[in-house]
Write a structure and sequence with these properties.
- By secondary structure, the protein is an alpha/beta fold.
- It folds into two domains: about 110 residues, Restriction Endonuclease, CATH 3.40.91.50; about 55 residues, no CATH class.
- The chain has eight helices and seven strands; from the N terminus they run αβββββαβαβααααα.
- It has a five-stranded mixed sheet, with helices on both faces. A two-stranded antiparallel ribbon has the order 2-3.
Length: about 180
């Protein structure tokens, strides 16, 4: 599997799909190594292998493609993913004026690949099971040693939720008022 195929496979598993090639805008047609789009986002991702073909041709084609999208009033976010060898800084600067530019090394492992493409991938949040734990003991570990009994009481009340904290606060206010009135 080529590095470009690995990038395409990863993006497809995260909700992207192939766009029709050659990509036509008005009377102009554009051909890239791969073009992906997503149903849930406005991302339009162009993938290009930098080990083959001319970078200058790619630059000209991408500039024309970007202009065509602008003329149509497209709201899509254009991203170019370059897979393979590094390109000159001047060319990278020119490309980044038209689109978001991501580079992926041909020797990237899976973790590096995900890191390089992180802005395109959906955010993976921990499950509620992963978030559950003994938060009370974690907070107690972080409290200073001279923690008052009041803080410990509120911490115990917090384990019962919002109602527990309200009850403890009401109890303390009632006791303070009754001590002050007597």
């Amino acid at each position: 599997m080529t590095p470009l195929d690995r990038v395409i496979d990863l993006l497809k598993t995260k909700g992207f799909r192939d766009a029709q090639q050659p990509f036509g805008i008005g009377s102009a047609t554009f051909k890239f190594d791969a073009v992906l789009t997503a149903d849930k986002t406005l991302n339009l991702v162009i993938l290009q292998d930098t080990t083959v073909g001319s970078i200058e041709r790619l630059r000209r084609e991408l500039l024309a493609f970007g202009r065509s999208l602008d003329v149509l009033g497209s709201r899509r976010t254009l991203t170019l993913v370059l897979v393979g060898q590094r390109i000159d800084a001047d060319v990278a600067e020119s490309l980044s004026q038209v689109c978001r530019l991501l580079t992926v090394s041909a020797t990237s492992d899976d973790a590096q690949l995900r890191d390089s493409l992180a802005v395109l991938l959906p955010l993976e949040l921990p499950t509620t099971i992963e978030l559950q734990g003994d938060w009370g003991s974690e907070v107690r570990k972080r409290l200073p040693a001279n923690t008052t009994r009041v803080a410990a009481t509120y911490l115990a009340a917090a384990e019962q939720g919002e109602a527990g904290v309200r009850h403890e606060l009401r109890r303390r206010i009632d006791r303070a008022l009754s001590d002050g009135l007597s």
